[in-house]
Amino acid sequence: MVEMPEGYSGEGFHATSFDKVVGLARKNSLWPLPFATSCCGIEFMATMGSNYDLSRFGSERMGFTPRQCDMLLVAGTIAKKMAPILRQVYLQMAEPRWVIAIGACASSGGIFDSYSVLQGIDQVIPVDVYVPGCPPRPEGILDGILKLQDIVQNESLRRRSSPVYKELMTSYGIQ
To answer: Does the keyword Cell membrane belong to this entry (predicted)?
Structure first.
């Protein structure tokens, strides 16, 4: 049995803040939703394989329904006709939700400077982390996920209700 200091009642003592506990839990339990359309999707599949093992970072539970996921991984070329579907998938995800743009095509349209290709998914949904490359190696994708985990761990619980965040969502037409 552990003895408490004299006069200590045990009430009101916390070793950490609630924000930090929730951040740590969220960081280690991100549920990814892959939205892969081309060669970057193949690299993402390699990231899920045994050589790189994304599950050691708490993301082994791959979801293929947006309502159960909180991390959207957009990998590959997104056509302008596909943009409304990507936006709908994003809006169906659980809140809070985070987005990683994997590869040059998802980040900026890549080499496809064409009328039919979306020049970056940040035109339709907000992006938290960009992973460069054409296609990026699995190590780059893992680095992007680790960067997102840092963002998730340090994000305040009040950020999503702040005026700045609400203004950002309004700029994307999201209420």
So the answer is: yes
| Cα–Cα distance, 122 to 31 (Å, whole number) | 21
Q: Is 105 annotated as a binding residue?
A: yes
Contact call for residues 78 and 119 (beta carbons, < 8 A): no
pLDDT tens-digit map of 22-48: 888 888 888 889 998 888 888 888 888
Q: Does domain 30-171 sit in CATH 3.40.50.12280?
A: yes
Domain boundaries, the chain: 30-171
Bond before 135 cis per omega within 30 degrees: yes
Cα Rg of the chain, angstroms: 19
Alpha helices in the chain (DSSP H): 18-27, 39-48, 83-92, 103-108, 138-154, 163-171
Tokens for 101, please give them.
């743009």
